[in-house]
User: What shape does this take?
Amino acid sequence: MSHTLAAVIGVGQTHHRAKREDVSIAGLLREAVDRALADAQVTFDDIDAVVVGKAPDLFEGVMMPELYLAEALGAAGKPLLRVHTAGSVGGSTSIVAASLVEAGIHERVLTVAFEKQSESNAMWALSVPVPFIMPVHAGAGGYFAPHVRSYIRRSEAPNHIGAIVAAKDRQNALKNPYAHLHNADTTVESVLASQMLWDPIRYDETCPSSDGACALVIASEAAVERSDIKNPAWIHGTQMRSEPTTAAERDQVNPHAGREAAAALWKQAGISSPIDEIDCAEIYVPFSWFEPMWLENLGFAEQGDGWRLTEAGETALDGKIPVNMSGGVLSSNPIGASGMLRFAEASLQVMGEAGEHQVDGARKALGHAYGGGSQFFAMWVVGSDKPR
Amino acid sequence: MAELGTLHAPLKVEFDYTRSLGPTLSEFMSGLRRHQVVGGRLADGTVVVPPPEYDPQTLDPVKDLVPVADEGIVQSWTWVPEPVKGQPLDRPFAWALVLLDGADRPLLHAVAVDSSDAIETGLRVRARWSDEPAGAITDIRWFEPADVASTSSTTASTGSTTEAVDGIISPVHLDYDYAASPEESKFFRGLADGKILGQRCPKCQKVYVPPRGACPVDGVPTTDEVEVADHGTVTTFCIVNVPFLGQKIEPPYVSAYVLLDGADIAFLHLILGVEASEVRMGMRVKAVWKPRDEWGTTIENISHFEPTGEPDADFESYRIHL
Assistant: This one.
């Protein structure tokens, strides 16, 4: 299928915080948008369409926020789309924006995703009791903890693997000025000593609740050529898949949709051995154990072996496949933006603009997001060079 | 037997959202608290109330904030014959677009008049301010015809509050009539008879409990009703130690996937009668039903599950359910 080449030419994000009481939702988005436009060396006049993403409306209690945001996002007179795929929305929003360029419909698309968690309580919003049903639900942690237990049992991983991930991501976050958590003292031991929230998930193995936004400017090959941008992040492949939340014998540890999306992505990007050909990966890891789980789901490791990469330090910044160089979701979690932040970090890496958390010589990177009860998957590969 | 309707139950979703305003709307709300309406002057010179955060033409933040009058002219209106809870007035009133003196765009607000005959385009109206301003749009209780003698002061009684209003509470109350599907209704009615009813997919033969009317894998109706046992195997679980808003069960508690014998999908329930730290994957458990006179059409007829004392199920027997 022939299509126009597209590239990320601008990345912007907020300094993610627990509470941004000094700005409205619109103001929060504009911080990210203004930074992305400046980074792309364009203005609103150069933008053809705007694609916005966020997680469920109950999180801030603003129904269809895209209506109220049209003005702040400079969308008047242009197409404005809102995407929603729960926690993966930042990823799928980026892909919808990229598709509009790749399809030859628009030259430059602005895409932005956000969450202002301080306006509400996501745990409450995810646990509204449903009549007739047993009220045992306990937020996202309560949902995923049993599946983490299943992973540990299936893979026979040692108990401290989750703590290794948490300590690594928190240390990486120290190099990222935009990260919400800057906890210099986090070690494997301190994570293991932290409170057990949803056994087997500990407090320090859990993502924070953040206010934040992320924006990207995606441009066509022709628009890149007419610009002064010398280091765009070329989009080599994008994939999305979904599956039912519940089905008999559904694999919640290694979901089918994620495996299928990854296989299609590697094929599309011309990659035969991901661990050898991908230089670094930003993977959606809201609870630490999802790093080894997704390493397997994505094909960086054989089933049951993801934790061995983590344990051997191969996912650290200087490892074979650095994962979550930015500090990841474990260090910043404005839910709706979290997926786009993964896609943005992958872009920054291949643009060579990741600052202190830059992986030396990164030329091909993965951005990944998942959402719902592991039922939505979105991922892309970006590269320093144009795809062949 | 006559076909019973689906089960219904009220579902209330309510939350007080804490909305931060940002600099522009903060000035607007702070103004209201001192009985002053503030508009925003846009790049083209027009004054808009409330001030937009961003200029629709230049897209820059609106920073030129100017006071406007608290009275003006009705531009257009609609009559509300039956007010609902939470509206500015509890008697019939008008929603109107009011062009305040000094502004170029109208403000939407309520106008209190006795009947729809007493309002017309061009009517001059004046704000009726709250005596207890809070820094919210409701500080203007409503507008009323300007020829009515003003009964409230035009400046706020709480003049000492100089701190900016930087946020508002935005309460949301949603009242749903929750309806279970026909298949779920059968399931819940079965529970009222002490039975656990599932449905089998005619294609893949998997038994779904609760039934859902269609197989999510094959996309065909699940028509065959199957009664399953009230005992089974814990496939996986977590121990909830974290308290949170709206929680119905006091932590710590074990939230477990229970795969009932005869079913092909596990469902979440509570495990008691054993220390949380003793619960294991593969543990055999049985339903503990509440006293029969407490039963309704709900899964909560089963108070919880507790260990049967049988040996644990072999891992391979439930591995595919993880």
Notes: The first strand of chain B starts at residue 8 and ends at 20. Chain B has two domains: 8-172, 182-321. Residues 128 and 142 of chain B are 5 Å apart (CA to CA).
